[in-house]
Amino acid sequence: MATTQVRAPAVASRRWAALFFMGLAQLMIVLDGTVVNIALPSLQRDLGISDGDRQWIITAYTLAFGGLLLLGGRIADYTGRKRAFLIGLIGFAGASALGGAANDLETLLSARALQGAFAALLGPSALSLLTVTFTQPKERAKAFGIWGAITAVGGAIGLLAGGALTDYLDWRWCLYISVPIALIAVAGGYVLLTESRNEGGARFDVPGVLLVTGGLVAIVYATSRAESDGWGSTRVIGLLAGGAVLLAVFALVESRVAQPLLPPRLIADRTRGGAYLSVGLAMLGMFGAFLFMTYYLQVVKGYSPIRTGVAFLPMTVAVLMSAGGLATRLLPKVAPRMLIMPGLVLIASGMLWLRTMETDTGYVEGVLVSGLLLGFGAGMIMPVAFNYATHGVDRRDAGVASASVNTAQQISSSIGTALLNTIAIGATADYVASHASQGASPAFAKTAMLEGFVAAGTWAAGILLAGALIVAILMNTPRPGPKAVPEDAEPVPAHS
């Protein structure tokens, strides 16, 4: 028997089929970040939840998710990425079913926290499986183009799904919807995915786990409280300072232990650091836009939840066109910053477009233009950033590298949304105070709200443009080189 290098279309098709089920898992995680938001008013009335407690329905998920991501990535590396993927899916489905059946706030919060915990295991394991499954440059570019598009459009799909489910069924289906998605992904993943794990015994960096989890939880919790308490409150400042201290001690510990939870070599790479920053900035822009546009369409323009969701569809199409049609083709051919920088500028332009909008601005010349700019920008960034966040990583660190980019995504969306919302509320209050002589009326209230959105969008644009400049300096990776091995080549035994 001899061994020859031949093309293996069956193996290649198996990889793409596996990507479908990995993508389902990623869609479910991202979708769950926004699908519940539109259902909050109905949910709150049904369960008799106070205004002060309703924020915990979102915060319970983000705290567990953001705080446990690095631990989830390391567990996937050591216990097996396929195993972690399947356990994460089953656990997420169970938590979603529990949340959908909840009849009181305590049960719902427990379910949301469990969703976040299992998402922290599922997200890194799915991305690390993608990383070790697609290694050929051309295939990898396509796979990460699809992955980036899913990540960028998942939030908008969540808004559409949340509006439709709340209007036509019941808020509980915003949680139940994850159950069939997860079970389909379990079935496909079990059949198609190949197990991969680190060799040797697992020695978890317990001090690192405690420090980074405590630091991330403190920061995410602080940003969630900032919207109600204000950024200058003692509680928020104390939590942010405490989280920063814990993360600083974590960095010190990681440089000294034999088997660190987050090896310093991962974040010391300039290209990888630029990729993490790019993901964070893109999510800040997208989630800020989701927040402002949702309120603009529903409160200022009077759209229903389902109509609001439909209004986001062009943005979704723009992401798919940009990620699948442009970024995927250029990713193997150009330096990463040549795609990321224009993408950040486009997102900034979409936020600045808010400055052209008035309370009577039509959908086409207002939200549509802004959404298209945001969508095209995000589609150029996400595939490239996810690719280079895990590119060239040692196989044994695939899980924690994936967890790191997921952490950047989660933390930046939490901090960015809270920061921009605070700016918007402050600008609205200032406008009301300076125009008090005009008197109170529904039209005046809408104008004041729009002023807040414009101010926050301007700040977001400034942050994005500064980020684009930093990425230009930091991410100095050259154009990718030629492929070293033939695409889709697999060693297959040939019987003589």
Give your account of this protein's structure.
This protein is mainly α. The protein is 76% helix and 2% strand. It has two domains: 13-204 and 261-480, MFS general substrate transporter like domains (Growth Hormone, Chain: A, Up-down Bundle); 205-260. It has 18 helices and two strands. A two-stranded antiparallel ribbon has the order 1-2. The protein is globular and about 70 Å long. The chain crosses the membrane at residues 16-40, 55-72, 84-102, 114-132, 144-165, 171-192, 204-224, 236-253, 274-297, 309-331, 338-354, 366-386, 453-475. It is found in: Cell membrane.
Short description:
This protein is mainly alpha-helical and 496 residues long.
CATH class of the largest domain: Mainly Alpha
CATH architecture of the largest domain: Up-down Bundle
CATH fold-type name of the largest domain: Growth Hormone, Chain: A
The average pLDDT value, as a whole number, equals 80
**Discrete helix count:** 18
Q: From the helix content, strand content and strand pairing, which structural class follows?
A: mainly alpha
- Relevant CATH superfamily of the largest domain: MFS general substrate transporter like domains
Kindly report the spatial arrangement of strands forming the biggest sheet: 1-2
Major sheet size, sense and barrel closure: 2 strands, antiparallel
